[in-house]
Each structure stands twice: as structure tokens, then as C-alpha cells.
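A student in our group prepared the protein record below, which I am reviewing. Thanks in advance; the entry in question is below.
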Amino acid sequence: MSIKISGAPCCWGVDDPENPFLPVWEHVLYEASQAGYHGIELGPYGYIPVDIARVQEELAKHDLTIIAGTIFDDLVSPGNLDNLLKQADDICSLITQLPKPLKLSGKFNPPFLVIIDWGHDERDYCAGHPDHAKRLSRHEWNNMVSHIRSLADRAWNQYGVRPVIHPHTGGYLEFEDEIIKLMEDIPYETAGLCLDTGHLYYSKMDPVKWLKECSKSLDYIHFKDIDSDIYQQVMGERTRFFDACAKGVMCPIGQGIIDYDSICALLKDIDYQGYITIEQERDPRLSQTSLRDVKQSLDYLKSVGFQL
């Protein structure tokens, strides 16, 4: 398979850049290189600074490239567009001036701009519960679609960065009906998909089925695994997604409930050619075990035929 494995700062608990317990970004890059990575995501906007010379120096020190930057913000509210576009400009201007990852034979190559809706309590507390979660009105949905189109146009037309939309647990793009409507309203020519095995499973979808059904729109993939016992526990609670992660619902790849033998076989069947990023969200106060867990995930994936 022409597939490369990369990493993400969320494996060190980096999801909220305002969290006072985050490890410093230089340490995350150091441990990513110690794990054997050659590529990593930027993480949430504001974590790694928009400072080309400084970031370039750290990446070179650890033989790393940036696979993607992420907009992880409210895509729905009409008044948030200017903020979203500023993030797109800052992220894309940074990642396009850094050393490029190895090109593979996929339709699009990194770095990507990953677009995620986030920041709605009413959905966060219903994470993983499609039957209970509020859906957007038609007007609200159209606002979100318009914002995604604006971000996609900015990334591609001004910077040549391929935008990919990431359905995310706890946001307004999470469940089966929302992914189907998203693909109807935003054509592949405008933006691709970044599907996440852990988010799919958490939100009551079969990762194998959805990777297959969305294969023609799939530009990028995130791999996670889920601890079955903790998952069953948090599904019985009114729990925010990242609170569930702090309880350990995400575990190293190959140690949880997701069927990676079938996923590996499927990626060969659909001839996926591209990048896959390992994610294992956690409480950053537990990041002292991140390197160990990342190595376990990498060792498992290498054992079933993936490469760094």
C-alpha cells in the first residue's frame, strides 16, 4: 500500500490551546520524532505558533514535516466567518512555507486544511447519541455549508491547500444523516473528506462500512481505537466528548474494539493511497504515557503492513 502513517498533538492531550496543562509544543515534536514519526499535524489553531522560521527550525531538528493544519471552531454562527477565514489564512500561509511531506499517489497530497465544527454544548453533551442530538435548522445548516465553502475556496484558490471536512463527535457534523447531507451539499471538487475511525464508531457508525461508502471522497484518514468498557460506561452518562477522552475512552490502536484487520483489508480493496494520522485524545496531565502509547499504536500498524 502507498500509505504513510503520521501523528497529531492530540495524542499528548492537545485539543484546547487554552488548557493550562498542555505540554510545550517543542516537547511534542521531540517525542513524535522519538516515536519514529516523519510527519505530524499542527494541532489546534494557536498551539504551534504562526512563526515560520521558528517552526521550521524545530521541524528540521526532528526530521518532521507538517501533514495538516486544523480549523476546530464554530462553523455555524453567522458572526464567526471572519474569525474562521483569519484562521485559514494563518494556517495555510504557515504550512505552505514549511518543508513538504513525501508525495504519494493519491489524488491530493498534504498539507491539508482539516475543517471541523466545534463549540456547541447542546451537541457536545449528546456526543455519540444520534437519537437524542439536536439537528440544525435548514437555515443554520445552510450557514454552515456556506462557511465551509468559503474556507475551502480560500484554502485552495489562494494557497493551493486541499480542504478536507472532518465529521467530529460532539459537533454538528457527526452522525450518518449529517455526513450524507454534507456530501450532497459540498461536492468533492470543493472539498474532500477526512474520516476518523474512532469518531465513526463512537457515533454509532461502522468504520469499515463508511470508509468504503465514502471512498471516492476520501482524501485523508484518522485512526483511533476505543476501549469497549469505558465506552459503554460513558454512553450511560451525560458526558462531553473530551471528558470521555480524559477517562480513557481512546486507547492505542489494536488494543480496542475497532476491527483494524478489516480496515486494513478494506484500504487495500479500495486502493487508498495517502496519509493516515494516529490520534488518541487524552487528558494532557497524562501525557507522560503518550510516547509509550504512540509507539504501541505504530508497532501494531507496522505489524499489519503499514509504514511510517
